[in-house]
Design brief:
By secondary structure, the protein is α+β, with helices and mostly antiparallel strands. Helices cover 33% and strands 24% of the residues.
Length: 319
């Protein structure tokens, strides 16, 4: 029996997939990732990964956008679920207030971080294999869980009940995530893509785990400013925009009239960062932290260490 026939037989026994021999493909060069499809085998350094499809993520406000260079796969030798990340380069500009920040993808940077955080369960785990054309391919352990992006707004409670019953535990969990970023900085790296959908709450451990490290900037404070978005998302119970607040019947005209441009997020001017104007039960220290991330901040954090110090003090005094 040929290697191809053995693989087809193994796929059939493991997955129940009967793939016609003429459609079966073994990929050893991932350069043309747009030509890799469900049922193909990515074969790297003696390991065979059965492609199940592309991974998806929210992007630019639209949910479930396919990442054509990232694949859901099964490692045939072990039966374990993996995520396969091939080489993809893009570059775009992000804004923090008036500042323009160049963002670009670096597979090599992600490989270095995976090596650095090995064994630290606050981060996704994986390793790098180079294909026959020396393309950097990252093999990531699949994390079973729910993204913070989906978890928080789906808690079926009013904001006030959520604030007193669920937010304290969430803020303590987020403390561990901020400490993880601080520790990453101490190793000489930045995460580069801190977002609410890049924290997975692992199902069996409830640990908050960071994913996706391939985005890079030449500005070291980008991570710190991005953490502000995580805190705001947790406190607001999702994204609260000016438009939504002004249209909502639950907020008084006094509250609506009090809002102005200075209350917006430095990253996203349509989102409200100064949430105490909306929810007067937000305590002062927490509100003070949020106001550091507005378009016109009352003060700046020097670095993530200072942010952590204020955050820890806020938890001790108010939660």
């Amino acid at each position: 029996m040929s290697d191809k026939e053995q693989l087809l037989e193994k796929i059939n026994s493991m997955m129940g997939w009967k793939i016609p021999a003429h459609r079966f493909k073994i990929v050893t060069d991932t350069s043309e990732w747009m030509n890799i499809h469900r049922g193909h085998i990515i074969s790297l350094n003696g390991k065979n990964f059965l492609v199940r499809g592309n991974m998806n993520e929210p992007r630019f406000g639209i949910d479930d956008q396919p990442k054509y260079w990232v694949f859901s796969a099964i490692e045939l030798e072990t039966g374990k679920e993996k995520i396969i990340k091939t080489v993809f380069y893009e570059e775009f500009i992000s804004h923090i207030g008036i500042f323009k920040i160049r963002c670009y993808r670096s597979p090599e940077k992600e490989s270095q971080i995976l090596e650095s955080v090995r064994g630290d369960d606050r981060f996704m785990q994986g390793y790098t294999i180079y294909d026959q054309k020396e393309n950097n391919v990252r093999i990531i352990d699949y994390i079973k869980g729910v993204k913070l992006f989906h978890y928080i707004p789906n808690i079926p409670k009013t904001h006030k009940n959520y604030f007193y019953e669920d937010l304290p535990e969430l803020l303590h969990k987020i403390l561990s995530s901020i400490e993880a970023i601080r520790d990453l900085h101490k190793r000489g790296f930045c995460h580069g893509d801190i977002r609410n959908d890049h924290i997975i709450i692992e199902s069996n451990t409830r640990i908050f785990r960071w994913i996706d490290f391939d985005l890079k900037q030449d500005v070291t404070d980008f991570d710190m400013w991005s953490v502000g978005n995580i805190i705001c998302y947790a406190v607001a119970k999702g994204i609260l925009t000016f438009d939504a607040a002004l249209k909502s019947k639950q907020f008084s005209n006094e509250i609506k009239n009090s809002l102005d441009a200075s209350d917006s997020s430095a990253f996203y001017e349509y989102r409200i960062m100064n949430l105490k104007k909306i929810y007067d039960y937000i305590p002062e220290r927490l509100s003070d932290i949020l106001q550091h991330f507005t378009i016109r901040p009352k003060a700046f954090f020097r670095d993530i260490d200072e942010l952590l110090e204020k955050y820890q003090e806020m938890l001790i005094k108010e939660f």
